[in-house]
Amino acid sequence: MHRLVIRLAAAWLAAIPVLAQPPEPARQPLLRAVDLAVGESATVELCDGTRATVRLLDVRESRDAIRAAIRSAEADVEVNGERLTLGSGNYRLPVSVAGVRIDCPVTHGYRTNAESDVWGLEKDARLRLWPAQSPLQEPGTFRYPLKQRWFASATQMANEPVYVDGVERPSLRKIYYHYGLDMGGPEGLAEVTAATDGQVVSRGTDRLPGYEDTPVAPRYDVVYLLDNQGWYYRYSHLMTIDPAVKLGATVRLGQPIGVLGKEGGSGGWSHLHFDIFSRQPSGKWGVQEGYALLWEAYVAEHAPPLIAVARPHQLAAVGDDVVLDGSRSWSAAREIVRYEWTCTDGTTATGPVVHRRYDRPGCYSEILKVVDAAGATDYDFAVVQILDPAQLDTLPASIHPAYAPSFGVRPGDEVTFKVRSFGTTHGEESWDFGDGSPAVTTRSDGNVEQHAKDGYAVTKHRYEKPGHYLVRVERTDAHGYKATARLHVRVAEK
Question: What local confidence, expressed as pLDDT, does residue 403 receive?
């Protein structure tokens, strides 16, 4: 009898399914991350076997007077005996010094009044290092996950406080620094693709067993992939998920994941929220800052000669000094020879960095034009939200436009434009397509219901000639404050 009980018990235990566990990483990333306290140093073995000694000398963080949000952070470091200052996050790329490439994705202050602590950082700053000539990711293993032109629409990236849907409200003292990468686009018209090869560990509300103690947080509009570095990739706010993306399946680089939308906790604006999570030097799960990785992948795939960067956005009150900064712009020719600014009020300025003041509340979009030594031209737009100092919690309306297609537009092609205003149901949007054609009006819903199927207003336009077109869309709220947004449409020769 005793032996029978043992056999039955053994059979019962054997019948219990063993939960799957995340596999051990099959390869290491090219970057090496180190977290340091001020005054601390470390010797880091890089991916090619060479070593670099890095010391954190100081960290400086600048907060605004309106929300006490960090608008810029700098880390003074010494690398192999050479000193330099690194800007942290906020659309910055790694720099080369003393035989390495290095960046500073985050500093400690981003944890102190943040809505959530997602970095796994326990010291004063995180530094990431690569050998001097190394790519940021192994070639052929990572790509830009959205079939859309770089900066074709609004973004919230790399520690930028969230703002598009009107949440730069001074009364919100906990700041949502966008640790991930928000890429705005036209709802239902932009395909999201796999940035890597990876296993589908979560699809919608379903998650593989054994992945409970990981960054994976299932939601109906979200897909998580796990690559062979042990990194988790989150694709969020999908309007639809591709049927071929099945739980437990392996997807390949560039395979369709779904269609960009505004589902889930999007705030009502259509965008791809893309996160990367990995183990950090503290041993905790944390964000792997991805702006530079996306930039490298996009440049490798599309070979743009020039990228204008007028981001992140600015928040200030009437009369405050506002800095418009285009110095993050990049040229393959390695020399930008002209920076030209054209502001909403018609004033102009030159130089990578200019200062100006605003005398009226509103949401402004200031034009940056950059020209490099090879004659290439590109445009970007600096979003500036200006508040009434007597009513700081009364935000002006904001506005999100997008368009498709953003690649390969030729004369006569139909272009679809979508727009949604936030913070007002007053008035309507007015469009200027930048080609001298008559103005067009639309009326979006003001984001009354975030997930409304018809929340975005739609209009279509055709350009008759090739060229660069700067589109302007505006809406005035009940206070008389105007929200202005811009798009850059490139029309190629036939």
Answer: 98
pLDDT single digits (tens) 178-198: 999 999 999 999 999 999 999
Rounded Cα distance between 173 and 67, Å, is: 6
- Greatest CA separation for the chain: 95
Cβ atoms 218, 202 nearer than 8 A: yes
339 neighbors 359 (Cβ within 8 angstroms): no
> Could you give the CA distance from residue 438 to residue 37 in angstroms, rounded to a whole number?
58
Q: Rounded to whole angstroms, how far apart are CA atoms 310 and 349?
A: 14
Q: Do the beta carbons of residue 459 and residue 375 sit within 8 Å?
A: no
**Band of the pLDDT at 272, cuts 50, 70, 90?**
very high
* pTM, 2 dp: 0.94
Task: Please provide the DSSP assignment of 324-340 as one string.
Answer: EE-TT-EETTS-EEEEE
- DSSP category for residue 477: -
Q: Given strand 238-241, what is the order of strands in its sheet?
A: 191-193, 256-260, 238-241
Q: Return d(Cα 102, Cα 365) in angstroms, integer.
A: 32
One-letter amino acid identity for 102? I
Q: Minimal CA–CA distance to 434: which of 364, 379, 486?
A: 486
Spatial CA neighbour of 241 closest among 262, 226, 223: 223
Distance CA 180, CA 145 (A): 14
